[in-house]
């Protein structure tokens, strides 16, 4: 979820609707500095209402093909495989089959009690903060993989038999001078109302690449690409009050486009502009941004350059409330960037407007699918009011 620039006029989103009315998004952890909430015994109301699903893990193995069908282009993370092996061993030792319920691969029943006790001890025994992050992320991903098997569509992350929207999506080729990186919080991986997934569904996983926070293999792939491209080719769409931001016009306008260090060379894929989108709840994104800043300081000795957008909120505000109205979902932010670049002379001939519209259409399809699901389940479609948070 990304903030748009404050006090800028709404200009592009053709599917914009008036103040929304649907509540959907659950509150999640806001810091990586304390034991994560998955170790606590409370369940979300949606998980509590959902019948348990027994895990159909077979021998528990995750193939590379299965892993990459969910969206990543990386090898299977070693820590994720390690956690899955530990879950299988625990299942054998306590003679209780894993069961899942609700969204996000939440463990349920007696196995959950045993698993939480074991993993609380493992987490607290880790002295290195980096090891805690890796363990936390791997545990989230492992449970979501096993809990979603045979239940969620591997492409759109919606219930396969009831709500799959894949037949409605229309892929679009992204101009090769741009590459998106979706830096996703592990609690957003396989989340049904996540919009970051729409980028690789529409543009393909090599034009919009998934990088999961805390998964070392993913972060290494992303930062190796950034190092190869050079700092002048890397931008983060995460402006906040503590960061110096640059508008799209300032960064890529006519004056800047004359600079060969900024203008992409389409004969070389490594010359593409890399745009990093932080994909997580607003509270989680703060920890994610800190991690990016630390790595940028380590690599380049300075902070990651940030871009602010002039576009307004997206249709997803109808579905999931944001802390304030100047913040938008990941896919809408990417579409907004494409629209703003399209208006610049140096980018006007690349069809970015059509590519942005394809992404907007996908957001609307996701909104419709999730709304239909809520209505079918008899759930409320009245958006809860939240107080705006002033930056």
In short:
Residues 149-379 form the DTW domain. The protein is 39% helix and 10% strand.
Protein architecture, described:
This protein is of the alpha/beta class and 391 residues long. It has 2 domains: 237 residues, no CATH class; 112 residues, no CATH class. The chain contains 12 helices and 11 strands. The N terminus and C terminus are likely disordered.
Topology:
Elements lengths: L1 E2 L41 H5 L3 E2 L9 H6 L8 H17 L4 E3 L4 E2 L1 H17 L3 H20 L29 E7 L12 H7 L4 E5 L3 H14 L4 E3 L8 E3 H5 L1 H4 L15 E7 L2 H19 L5 E3 L18 E2 L1 H13 L9 H25 L15
Parallel strand pairs: 5-6, 5-9, 7-9, 8-10
Antiparallel strand pairs: 1-11, 2-3, 3-4
Helix pairs in contact: 3-5, 11-12
Topology order in helix (H) and strand (E) letters: EHEHHEEHHEHEHEEHHEHEEHH
Instruction: Classify the secondary structure makeup into a structural class.
Output: alpha/beta
Strand order of the largest sheet: 6-5-9-7
Shape: globular
Main pleated sheet? 4 strands, parallel
Averaged pLDDT, please? Answer: 80
Number of strands: 11
Radius of gyration from CA coordinates: 21 Å
Q: Given the structure, what is the number of helices?
A: 12
Helix content: 25-40%
Q: In what range is the share of β-strand residues?
A: 5-15%
Pfam families: DTW (PF03942)
Domain DTW: 149-379
Protein name: tRNA-uridine aminocarboxypropyltransferase
EC number: 2.5.1.25
């Amino acid at each position: 979820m990304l903030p748009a620039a404050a006090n800028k006029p709404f200009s592009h989103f053709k599917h914009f609707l008036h103040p929304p009315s649907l509540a959907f998004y659950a509150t999640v952890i806001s810091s990586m500095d304390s034991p994560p909430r998955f170790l606590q015994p409370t369940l979300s109301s949606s998980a509590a209402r959902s019948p348990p699903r027994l895990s159909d893990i077979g021998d528990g193995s995750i193939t590379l093909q299965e892993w990459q069908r969910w969206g990543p282009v990386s090898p299977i993370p070693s820590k994720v495989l390690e956690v899955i092996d530990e879950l299988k061993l625990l299942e054998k030792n306590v003679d209780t089959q894993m069961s899942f319920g609700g969204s996000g691969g939440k463990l349920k029943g007696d196995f959950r009690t045993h698993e939480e006790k074991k993993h609380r001890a493992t987490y607290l025994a880790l002295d290195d903060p980096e090891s805690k992050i890796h363990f936390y992320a791997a545990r989230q991903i492992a449970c979501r993989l096993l809990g979603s098997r045979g239940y969620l569509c591997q492409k759109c992350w919606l219930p396969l038999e009831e709500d799959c929207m894949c037949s409605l999506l229309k892929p679009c080729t992204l101009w090769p001078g741009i590459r998106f990186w979706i830096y996703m919080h592990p609690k957003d991986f396989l989340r049904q109302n996540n919009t970051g997934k729409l980028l690789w569904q529409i543009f393909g996983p090599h034009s919009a690449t998934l990088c999961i926070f805390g998964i070392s293999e993913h972060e290494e792939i992303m930062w190796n690409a950034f190092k190869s491209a050079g700092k002048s080719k890397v931008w983060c769409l995460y402006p906040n009050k503590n960061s110096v931001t640059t508008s799209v016009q300032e960064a890529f306008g006519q004056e800047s486009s004359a600079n060969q260090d900024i203008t992409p060379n389409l004969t070389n894929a490594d010359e593409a502009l890399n745009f990093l989108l932080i994909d997580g709840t607003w509270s989680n994104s703060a920890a994610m941004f800190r991690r990016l800043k630390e790595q940028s300081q380590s690599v380049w000795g300075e902070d990651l350059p940030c871009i602010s957008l002039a576009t307004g909120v997206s249709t997803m505000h109808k579905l999931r409330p944001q802390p304030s109205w100047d913040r938008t979902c990941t896919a809408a932010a990417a579409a907004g960037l494409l629209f703003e670049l399209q208006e610049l002379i140096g980018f006007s001939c690349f069809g970015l407007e059509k590519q942005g519209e394809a992404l907007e259409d996908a957001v609307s399809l996701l909104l419709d699918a999730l709304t239909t699901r809520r209505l079918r389940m008899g759930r409320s479609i009245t958006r809860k009011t939240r107080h705006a948070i002033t930056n």
